[in-house]
Design goal:
- This protein is of the alpha+beta class.
- Strands 1-2-6-3-7-18-8-17 form an 8-stranded mixed sheet, with helices on both faces.
- The C terminus is likely disordered.
- Helix 1 packs antiparallel against helix 3, helix 4 packs parallel to helix 9 and helix 6 packs antiparallel against helix 7.
- Helices cover about 30% and strands about 25% of the residues.
- About 40% of the residues are buried.
- Strand 4 and strand 5 form a beta hairpin.
- The protein is built from 9 helices and 18 strands.
- It folds into 2 domains: about 240 residues, Zn peptidases (Aminopeptidase, 3-Layer(aba) Sandwich), CATH 3.40.630; about 120 residues, 2-Layer Sandwich (Alpha-Beta Plaits).
- Bound molecules: zinc ion.
- Zinc ion binds next to loops.
């Protein structure tokens, strides 16, 4: 191999970039693609890069899309590694934040470049077309859609299948994949609870959004614990709550940010309805004069792996890496690309990162990205 993949990985790890700001990362990718003699399109969906390569063996092969995400997270790295990130970035709110490849996208880029080098070297041994997609902003759940909106499905051969992978805290040397639902659907919501502000000494003259928010957060906990059949799966997380600036001033509104997960569209509609019912009911219980404002920040469909493709990949991986390599991880962007395109199939696998994984347990496959 001419690409030093370890050095490439360390370089990417040292220089993480926030979502839709992956310009350096895209530059590293295009440099390597050029060195492989591949033409590419850059700037897709802001910073995305895509390239295609056709095998020269006899026969018609499928169009296979391979996808890797590129962005880091606003997390301060505390691994103590010699190549730990010290990078900072500016988030969408204009705040200076530390940045880390805490989700493993540095490894995804490295793996896809390594795969492309092998595909180029063995071009006369396979037929069909491989399209490699380096996608921005997985963490916003918006990068795949941005590339589609920028015409990636029209500028490259349309996929028969989209294959993706993600590091996960499985034992190193294992690959997790299952037929059917691999990753849950996910929505990110912002809820603005509108009250009436005033002085803290005169609470009776206000409609206190802090109390409204507190009650809402607690009642939302009962969606999964009291309302969903225990045999079904759903997650309702309030990951952010903000209201007020000072102890003696009751603010006019409170803001909640929710992360919701479910296995399919039916469960999605069900949970969303329950969340909205509770938000509106708690506002009413507080005597709010205005309805809460609920907005969807992102919405990702479930990743449902094609059964035949999963079986073929499992057999190939066990053949290549040894029997027992492939495990069922329990239960994404590939889904979005396959859903928004003529692709009939998607398959996403998880690659074990071993102990000391940089991914948090909240990113277990049963709960989906981002
Ligand atoms: Zn990720």
């Amino acid at each position: 191999m001419s690409i030093d993949l370890e050095a490439l990985y360390i370089d990417l790890h040292r220089h993480p970039e926030l979502s839709f700001q992956e310009t350096r990362t895209a530059g590293v990718i295009t440099r390597e693609l050029a060195a492989l003699g591949l033409e590419y399109v850059e700037g897709l969906g802001t910073t995305g890069v895509a390239t295609s390569i056709t095998g020269t063996a006899a026969g018609d092969g499928p169009v296979v899309w391979l996808r890797a995400d590129m962005d880091g997270l606003p997390v301060a790295e505390q691994t103590g590694l010699a190549y730990a990130s010290t990078a900072h970035g500016i988030d969408p709110a204009g705040t200076d934040v530390p940045v880390m490849h805490a989700c493993g996208h540095d490894m995804h880029v490295t793996a896809l470049l390594g795969a492309l080098e092998r595909l180029v070297a063995t071009r006369d041994e396979w037929s069909g077309t491989v399209v490699a997609v380096f996608q921005p902003a997985e963490e916003y759940g918006a990068g795949a859609q941005a590339m589609i909106a920028d015409g990636v499905l029209d500028r490259f051969p349309k996929p028969d299948i989209v294959l993706g992978q993600h590091l996960t805290p499985l034992p190193a040397g294992t690959i997790g994949v299952r037929p059917g639902t691999q990753m849950a659907a996910s929505d990110g919501l912002t809820v603005r609870l509108l009250g009436r502000g005033g002085h803290g000494s005169r609470p009776h003259a206000t409609i206190d959004p802090v109390v409204m928010a507190a009650a809402t957060v607690m009642r939302l906990q009962t969606v999964v614990s009291r309302e969903i059949d225990p045999r079904e799966m759903a997650v309702v997380t309030v990951g952010s709550i903000h209201a007020g600036l000072k102890n003696n001033i009751i603010p006019a509104e409170a803001k909640l940010e929710l992360s919701l997960r479910y296995p399919d569209d039916a469960a999605r509609a069900d949970v969303l309805a329950r969340v909205e019912r509770i938000v509106r009911a708690e506002a009413a219980a507080s005597g709010a004069e205005e309805q809460p404002v609920i907005t969807t920040d992102h919405s990702l469909p479930p990743t449902i792996n094609d059964h035949e493709a999963t079986a073929r990949l499992t057999a190939a991986w066990n053949r290549a890496f040894g029997e027992g390599t492939v495990v069922d991880p329990g239960s994404s962007p590939e889904a979005k690309m396959s859903r928004g395109s003529p692709a009939r199939r998607a398959c996403r696998s998880c690659t074990g990162s071993g102990a000391g994984s940089t991914r948090s347990s909240s990113r277990m496959p049963s709960r989906a990205a981002p």
